[in-house]
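Usage

Read records sequentially. Each one opens with the input sequence:
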Amino acid sequence: MKIATYWHAGTRHVGRLSDDGKNVTPLHLGEEAHDSGALSLVEKMAAGLPLPAEALPPLPLAAVRLDAPLPKPHRIFCVGKNYRDHAREFAHSGFDNSSAKPDDDIPTDPIIFSKVSEAVIATGAAIRIPAGVSEAIDYEAELAVVIGRGGRGIAAAQAMEHVWGYTIVNDVTARDWQQRHRQWLMGKSFDTFCPMGPWMVTADEMNGCDTRVRCWVNDELRQDARTADLIFAIPTLIETISAGITLYPGDLIATGTPVGVGIGFTPPKYLQEGDRVRIEIDGIGVLENPVEKG
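and closes with the structure output:
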């Protein structure tokens, strides 16, 4: 099942996509959908409630404006250096402050950080290069896990029972800020630095533990990998985060980015005004955003 959050006639709705992806049928969520998008649906389903009834007839997808599926996620947890080749390219880039000693390229435990939820934007919305603040803006294509059933102390063996589904996230990063401040929150949390979408897919419709992640900047394929290559798989990430932090329905875990980010090229290929970043994950769809100054 694919669930989209979208705007139509001045109101935010949550709806179910048709199997062919051409139509969306709004679900009866009322004001909750207008306030929080599909978060209210995830919370209801986590509480054991059935899928809400259809509220109106289907609409052509072309007649609506997609929003991020979770425009106000509870929290966004992110994972650093979770593909071996990317861990090596980042460690050798000169921008990595996470290595404790030389040759410490591959982490022995998950590196967890966060992005602020206010950075979320929808597919089609512009990633904005903040004029006078940073020109070292990079892209990171990532599969994001949507937590369904919350909990604390979740064992890896039961972790997938807590997954509602998946979406796509672009973990946009100001590399100079990431290096300068010796932590990752600020450089990854600028306004517009968390494109998300185009919708969410339930866990029963795709295998998030082995799917293909690709990213193009304009027409150049930059990233191409499978989530089966993650250093720390989804169950391990959930176990690690939930060991001391209670997870809630609607939390996101962005699982890390493959090799091929802009900082890995010589010279770096940072995003420029007029670029378009297109991320495709098998089983979900395409997240695409233009790049503008602003």
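Summary fields computed downstream for this record:
- Residues 97 and 183 are 8 Å apart (CA to CA).
- The chain has two domains: 2-66, 76-293.
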